[in-house]
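note to self — DONT lose this again. spent like an hour looking for the file last time. sequence + predicted structure for the chain T wanted, 499 res
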Amino acid sequence: MTESEFRNLVAHLERECDIAPGRYRAKVTALAGLGYAYAVGMLALTLGGVFAGIGLVASRHALIGGKLVLICGVAAFLVIRALWVRLDPPSGRRVSREEAPHLWRLVDKLRAKQAGPEIHEIIIDEAFNASIVQTPRLGIFGWYRNTLTLGLPLLQALSPKECAAVMAHEYGHISGAHGKTGAWIYRIRLVWMRLAEVFAQEEGWFDKLFTRFFRWYIPWFNAYSFVLARQQEYEADQASARFVGRTTTASALIAASVKGRFMAEKFWPALYAQADHQPRPGFMPHAAMRTALRVAGDSEDFKTWMWDALARLTTYDDTHPSLRDRLDALGMKPIVPTHPEHSAAQVLLRDALPRITSDLDAAWLTAVEAQWRERHNKVRAAQAEVERLGDANPARLEVEEKSRYALALLTLDRVNEALPLLCEAAEHARGNAETAMAAGRILAERGDDAAVRYFEMAMDRDGDMIPEATWRAMQLYEHIGNEALTEEWRARYERIIAD
């Protein structure tokens, strides 16, 4: 199913759900059961063949019975192996009850209030997010291990009550907020989506044959359950409001939106920009995060970002409704977030916070150290190239030198100087794909559809650049509002990634 087909289908299903919500929920429930019916049916068919073969052997038809046992036995084994998929559990810093009793006490309070399943473990990671991941021990047949994952940046950004609101929202998805059937559909929707990635990688002929049904089924179930999943976000917000109050839930939604943007657009870019000048980071991110958030809270950015978030509309790219729609559903008005006197990280983690911070910073440094060093060396090489060619007349440079000079300027973020040279080098008969793609990226970021010409040059010169160039052309036309060309390039991109 292509992305455009998915969007059109979901739009149709939303109308269907509005007209007859009860009938629609029943249809989704039946579709959810179809996946299990196929799995159980295939397993029963192969096991039935095994028992039939055993019966033939017992009735002195050893040759035929033996072959049937062998064939169906192998098939049953392959079916079980395909269904008993082991999904990787969430990764991060595990936190025990003894280490963070206040955090676990809040989880226990949530469970008592919402009457939901047990949380088996809590993980702290570096994402600005919170989630509860249900990892099935028995593949599609369940027996779930529930993991609450909390990002330390989120804990540093929110107050204890706002954090409780976020946790109550996440817990609402797996407790009674959607009703038993709704919670089941929510759970298996996420499991099927994770399994889709696994099934797509199957290589054996039987695995491909068996999982072919699921590769058809899962996208359709995703579309049908998408409408319910969006409704369930509102239901989870209501569960949060019952736990901490509407005001706190609304405050948490706004704070998460605004402070998440600060982390993505200000904090992390400023940290990684140090690689241009320093061979190692000048500070560790998690240790500096709380101070950075507090300073940012005194700027006008929070107010601007809040209104930007409120201007965004609900789309089909995500099951989460827009911030404005969620606040309207709660009956709340927007209020510019402030930084709490004591963060959720300080209150809920207490003495464990320094250890967790240190562990996450150490893991972060290990993960980025090689890329950091590569970026630092690349900038130094670009500076040397610019110094070497800086006094030359760019118009007299050979195309190869002009390309290197332009790309070096781009590495040093001297974009306005680099762009005309990139275009000249790309348009030369001996121009290369890298300069063409670089020129296209810059023009696309500026909303200039001349970028597509350079994307096409890059694709003609290097086939490896076709997926990126096609995707960027599609994104550009979508940004400037050309629906016809957006769909044309979307179709091209979907054909490419399907091959």
